[in-house]
Amino acid sequence: MHPMLNIAVRAARAAGNLIARNLGQNDLFEVEEKQHNDFVTTIDKECEQTIVNTLLKSYRDHGILSEEAGNLGNPDSEYQWIIDPLDGTMNFVQGIAHSAVSIALTQNGRTELGVVFDPMLNEMFTAIRGGGASLNGRRLRVANRDSLDAALICTAFPTRHRERMSAYLEIFNRLINHCADMRRSGSAALDLCYVACGRFDGYLEQGLKPWDFAAGELIVREAGGLVSDFAGENDYRQSGNVVAANPQILRALIKICDPQSLPAVLR
């Protein structure tokens, strides 16, 4: 295993063990609302510290961008770790066993490796740029479905941006009329990994942050999928509007999400 990937896996597993031990034990941690419908727990922060300590112990000259702590380490390093210590905090707070640790490494802005760990199912998704994607060591490929009619699509509603809800429902109505069924799981990192391993045929969400998708989008691409913004371009890292699928399903989703026919708030 690539040495940097090995360290990332070690960090993800250590943080994941904290999540697994505390799920459903709400008396053991505190919950704070950062903003409306956006929560952080003391477990998020403990997981973050565990990951940061593990990474900087081996790579003390690297930079880190983490959801809760922001920028850490060396801001001038060509290497930057992008961390979501607990993706799916609302699920975790509610005792729902669907959340993950997400860790990516970029070099000069290009993502080189990604790790997403689901501690409840003991599923470790990994990818190295140019080296493929794996789940617990087994090679991954996106689903080969070529028609949206029979596809299972995952999405998420903009609950933190309620002013966008009515506009986003236009997309949802189009999707539900063209695909087999839809899901909303509460963890963007795992949604992307589920596309990579074929459990979902496609995924789209608006307003994501880098730590939400940095690892997952590499895992999708290394599993043979594509990732774009709602217009089919590569602006998703700036806009946070992400669509992921195999090439055929991606084209169908982009057609539904055609920015020219959407309200300006969703473009």
Task: Chart the SSEs and their pairings.
Elements: H1 3-22, E1 31-35, E2 38-41, H2 42-58, E3 63-66, E4 70-73, E5 79-87, H3 89-93, E6 100-107, E7 110-118, E8 123-128, E9 132-135, E10 138-139, E11 152-155, H4 165-176, E12 181-183, H5 188-196, E13 202-205, H6 210-222, E14 226-228, H7 236-239, E15 242-245, H8 247-256
Parallel strand pairs: 3-5, 11-12, 11-13
Antiparallel strand pairs: 1-2, 3-4, 5-6, 6-7, 7-8, 8-9, 9-10, 13-15, 14-15
Helix pairs in contact: 1-2, 5-6
Task: Describe, in short, the structure shown.
The chain has helices at 3-22, 42-58, 89-93, 165-176, 188-196, 210-222, 236-239, 247-256; strands spanning 31-35, 38-41, 63-66, 70-73, 79-87, 100-107, 110-118, 123-128, 132-135, 138-139, 152-155, 181-183, 202-205, 226-228, 242-245. The chain is an alpha+beta fold.
Structure description:
The model is unreliable at 262-267 (pLDDT under 50). The protein contains 8 helices and 15 strands. The protein has 2 domains: 3-139, 2-Layer Sandwich (Fructose-1,6-Bisphosphatase, Chain A, domain 1); 148-266, D-Maltodextrin-Binding Protein, domain 2. The strands form 3 sheets. The protein has an 8-stranded mixed sheet, sandwiched between helices. It is an alpha+beta fold and 267 residues long. It has helices at residues 3-22, 42-58, 89-93, 165-176, 188-196, 210-222, 236-239, 247-256; strands spanning 31-35, 38-41, 63-66, 70-73, 79-87, 100-107, 110-118, 123-128, 132-135, 138-139, 152-155, 181-183, 202-205, 226-228, 242-245. The radius of gyration is 18 Å and the shape is globular.
